[in-house]
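The freezer alarm interrupted the setup, so I double-checked each line after restarting. Inputs confirmed:
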Amino acid sequence: MKLTGHLFIGAENAEGTEGTMKALNPATNQLIEPDFALGGAAEVDRAATLADQAFDDYSHTSLARRAAFLESIADNLDAVRTELAARAALETGLPEAQLEGEAAKAATQFRQFAEVVRKGRFLQLAVDPAQPDRQPRPRMDHRLQKIAIGPVAIFGASNFPIAYSVAGGDTASALAAGATVILKAHNAHPGASEIQARAIRKAVQDYGLPEGVFSMVRGSGNAIGEALVDHPKVQAVTFTGSERGGMALYRRAQLRPDPIPVFTEMTSINPTFVLPEAQATRGAQIGDGFVERMLVNVGQACLKPALLIAIEGPGFKALRAAMVKRVAEAPARAMLAPGIHASYLNGLVALEDAGAQRLAEGSAASGSFDGQSALLEVDGQRFLADTALAQEVFGPAALLVKVRDEAEMLAVARSLKGQLSAAMHLEEGDTPLAHRLLPILERRTGRIVVNAFAHPQEVTFATVHGGPFPATSDSRFTSVGMTSIERFLRPVAYQGFPDALLPEPLRHGNPLGLPRSVDGQ
Amino acid sequence: MKLTGHLFIGAENAEGTEGTMKALNPATNQLIEPDFALGGAAEVDRAATLADQAFDDYSHTSLARRAAFLESIADNLDAVRTELAARAALETGLPEAQLEGEAAKAATQFRQFAEVVRKGRFLQLAVDPAQPDRQPRPRMDHRLQKIAIGPVAIFGASNFPIAYSVAGGDTASALAAGATVILKAHNAHPGASEIQARAIRKAVQDYGLPEGVFSMVRGSGNAIGEALVDHPKVQAVTFTGSERGGMALYRRAQLRPDPIPVFTEMTSINPTFVLPEAQATRGAQIGDGFVERMLVNVGQACLKPALLIAIEGPGFKALRAAMVKRVAEAPARAMLAPGIHASYLNGLVALEDAGAQRLAEGSAASGSFDGQSALLEVDGQRFLADTALAQEVFGPAALLVKVRDEAEMLAVARSLKGQLSAAMHLEEGDTPLAHRLLPILERRTGRIVVNAFAHPQEVTFATVHGGPFPATSDSRFTSVGMTSIERFLRPVAYQGFPDALLPEPLRHGNPLGLPRSVDGQ
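Predicted 3D structure, all chains:
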């Protein structure tokens, strides 16, 4: 596929009004062809207007047609998997094999959401029949379904250039909900973005859907993002990235004349608690596994375990030694982008300034933007004294927090802000301590994992990729998993409707055979 | 019951640090005994600290115990129904019989939420079992439940002094979710608030729950509300009232270092569309029924139909004449409070300034704060030219919008902001027009009603009392009905947990017999 570098304003290949850019290969520090168009408020306005025009039509597509459309996107992604992974590898420095897996996963997400659409549970259909004889007054017939909230602006993430980017879970769940999408492509992988956008646009065209169902814009600086969250036709926003970027968009959207929901997934240090019996029996294994997981994607993952809390006692030395060894053996690898590399170095300095000691380093960097792995250590009292030590450092670094006893472990847990995840390593004898830790973690995290490092992002019904602030901007939602669709849905009640006027899923006799509750049953 | 005028800070009867106030009888313009304490940031801090301390315990109560606690509140409300209605009538000018009904409804809401708690569907339990043999890597066991978001601040409404106030649906749904509650009582009915708070506190004590499960504060001016939305322990806010008040709280909460969800239910003119065949066959009946409904609660209702859109054609004169007649016959009745009465008068002036003509008036006011009913008229072109005509006037007034044809009716519909509800009056021949109107209304309202005026606030599973901005601050939620509990819930996933550590509803074998999805089924 030849990349043209256009913006995709509906069906139009647009040149953009704000100049061009090139992709950078972070492993070689070389620019890559071709030029990619940059847009601004003008392109956002056209895309949002099309998205609004397409909304009534697309949001009323039948479940069967919408599901088939999602599957068609999946098929189109499969068809370009090899070239998509190759281009993404050039643009991100990530291994091509890993990116092929990511592309496969992205296609799977569209297929999973097609199933969600077909099954229709997300409509949360509820029927409370009329009670004409009720005293003191009759009850009308009440019927409820969920409908899409409106056009959605989605900000592609940098770190997973496919599964959290243009054809990522946000797009899949928004389209599944019946929302139209304006995708803001991340500038770190414009070519991979274009390949994905073509896969989606082809499906829009093949299914004869209105062109405004999907657009992709791109711009430099903050202007394009601001234009998106400000646009009156945009009714919801999702973002995956830094706390600073996410909160700027969030607060801006809340200052609109009509505030709109903005779901931002931002920052998490994913604390890992090593309980005493587990540490005594397998401290080295835990330390080694932790670092292995920490290094995945050069530490550039939302679920990267960045904090390990362990009690200075039996097994601690073995645990620490294993961590040191594994970090020391880690090769330096290219980070995603120069800005991310610079932030990583600054983040390490900030941890050291706050009193963390460097325990180990990986191989030295050779490329300009290689991330050298690092392990730092601090004691519990110091950690509790300075919140700078609980700041995320995006990249291949972790902090070992050495606590004196169980009480100090619990105090560290209580000191933490909202997290996407937390982990506990435990054996049976650790159960009483785990029971004390659990409610602390429940209040602070969206997922809690026992005895695992490799908890890759499963996309299932019970998946939660969310959590209290600052992990996300709204702990009531998840950005991954089948229930992520709820971010884009709102309920509408129909009272006293004649059958002919009711939406098909709500009609008498349930002609579509969808799951519906009747009086809550 | 002797009213003491205290603030309820957990179990403590607090004097307050900001002076006292008395209730006003708006029908007589007389102050009523006793003095009621006023508090500020100090009282909010104590209540929020207690709410936070109580949270872990209360949010982990068994479903059976929590349901029984809610039923106990209902019983306590029933036991004071007569004196509650009598005091509320004195403080609001509303009829005592109506308020007895409201008290009964408030008790019913607690009983309905007790059932919701017992059935456990709100937990949205999901189990995605481990797949140890899956390729290329095994899947861990994933389990999801929803838990309460944390301590909730609830602002009591003025216009329904029981069912939307201290013991209203917000409190019932928050307590059902497992959240602890800090209730900010409305100053327009402090005595009714105290009676309700006592009913709740008695249940807290009878069930041996931590005192911080429920507190009630009160203050003058904005300071107390600001202290509530600012308090770091408060994790969600609900508010029912004016757009100005609601948006001030909303925006303030979004500027916290950690923004929190604020659900505000604010303003709606609940447009009623009279379709041609319905107008031709029963115009007078529709006009009469509309005004009857408009006058309920002296026009002080969220669902008051304030706008009637009708085509100048067959039946129009009869419709208009019936509206005029009914308004002209309406007695003036005391409004809830001097401020609401003043706003009502200002609102009418604003409609006239924007070009609306006064068609009819009810009997003249005798009491100082009596609301004189009013019917105004404007043509469609004028309505479309000035958004001031679409502003809510809280009180016994309505605006008749006379449109030229179907196209202008649709244009008026498209011009509307978000609404709690809309109504269509139609006959079979109106179906094609209704089909064109429906998607416009779906995008703008939370509920759509056919051929009804009296759509009292049913509290069922299919109830939606919500809608796009400015009807509410988040169209994805409802403040009435069984799903209003979702405002206070967030998902948590448990991965790879041993059975002994899992929350009971998620344990293997489903020992509580609760509804759970398994792999989405």
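Quick read of the result. The CA atoms of residues 73 and 254 of chain A lie 33 Å apart.
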